[in-house]
Specification:
By secondary structure, this protein is mainly alpha-helical. The chain contains 20 helices and no strands. Helix content is about 80%, strand content about 0%.
Length: about 350
């Protein structure tokens, strides 16, 4: 049946060609191949259309579509831009074309350039994507990211602020702007913008959504805000506030490794060493190869004077990474406190040699 349908489509194409004439035959054939999902054949037909009618903007637009269906987004953008350059008024028509997602074509092309660290080209494609969806938080956030990479910090900050105006409940923007402020060493602005994000996620209506996927995403975003704010408060030497924020993240994401790790750090900074043990144990339970988790678990036990437990955590860490120098030093301290002088001396020597190797590298 499928072969019969394909035969009918091809037959129909010849009938159309007969009535429409040679000028549009390649475009017609290309459209039929698109309907058949034979995108390579469609591309060849539209290329012939371009050769036959190099001043016809429609030939480039259709060639761009064929490339897009083939997921060759950069080529799709190039051909679409050629069509627009031949007839600038065509852009308005494309914006109204609900049958084809031009935003996705330009955005995906931009993302490929971002991956390749071609930020000038990425900027160009992302800016065009905003012609089709001016309030796309994704496009705006990546636009700001490209500005940062191109050392256009003023433009980046303006773009983040514009995004917040256009899409005030997009949590990613607040987190990204906070990161920008951290790099710029604007401590007060960093903390302030994350506290604004906190107000959004603590709005009673934030998690009152029926769609399970949206609810899951919003919980993840809420946890992210608490983690980022908690980390900021830790860096700003406000561990008490950090603890209160991070415990909220734990309540939302008890199985999240990063949340547990950051909560453990907050407790550690507050000198609540045995309390810190619990989240650090959770970290290594979730990821048995997490070196930082084992390091801080050992350090927390050491501070709490649980020396045998500290030695066990350090030993497991060194099994994962024999070049983790600090673990030798911590284990040496624990061995000394237990009266194991020889073992302490041996670990201390290995630790010092390890640090020398690191410095030489």
């Amino acid at each position: 049946m499928k072969h019969f349908n394909n035969f009918l489509l091809v037959l129909l194409s010849f009938i159309l060609l007969f009535f429409l004439g040679c000028q549009s035959q390649y475009i017609t054939a290309g459209k039929i191949y698109i309907d058949q999902e034979n995108y390579d054949a469609a591309i060849e037909q539209f290329k012939k259309a371009v050769e036959a009618e190099p001043q016809n903007h429609e030939t480039y637009i259709w060639l761009g579509k064929a490339y897009a269906y083939r997921k060759l987004y950069e080529e799709a953008c190039k051909q679409t831009e050629k069509g627009i350059s031949l007839d600038p008024k065509k852009l308005d028509a494309l914006k109204k074309d609900i049958s084809f997602n031009y935003w996705a074509v330009f955005f995906n092309a931009g993302m490929k350039h971002v991956d390749n660290k071609e930020f000038d080209l990425a900027l160009k494609r992302i800016e065009r994507s905003l012609d089709f969806e001016p309030k796309s938080a994704q496009s705006l956030n990546y636009l700001a990211y490209c500005f940062i990479k191109l050392k256009r910090d003023d433009d980046a900050e303006k773009t983040y602020k514009k995004t917040i105006e256009l899409v005030p409940d997009n949590v990613d923007t607040y987190v990204n702007l906070a990161s920008f402020y951290r790099i710029s060493e604007k401590k007060e602005e960093e903390e302030a913008i994350l506290k604004k994000a906190r107000k959004i996620v603590e709005n009673p209506d934030w998690l009152k959504v029926e769609n399970e996927d949206i609810l899951k995403q919003r919980k993840k975003e809420t946890s992210m805000v608490y983690i980022e704010l908690g980390n900021v408060l830790l860096r700003h030497e406000k561990p008490e506030e950090a603890e209160k924020v991070l415990i909220k993240a734990i309540e939302l994401s008890p199985e999240d490794k990063d949340v547990n790790f950051n909560y453990g750090i907050a407790l550690y900074e507050l000198n609540k060493y045995m309390d810190a043990v619990t989240p650090f144990k959770k970290v290594v339970l979730l990821d048995s190869l997490d070196k930082e988790g084992y390091y801080y678990l050992g350090a927390a036990y050491l501070k709490a004077e649980k020396y045998n437990d500290a030695i066990e955590a350090c030993t497991k860490l060194l099994e994962i990474d024999p070049e983790y120098c600090e673990a030798y030093i911590n284990r040496a301290y624990a061995q000394r406190e237990l009266g194991n002088t020889d073992a302490a001396y041996e670990d201390a020597e290995i630790g010092i040699e390890c640090q020398k190797r690191r410095e030489n590298k």
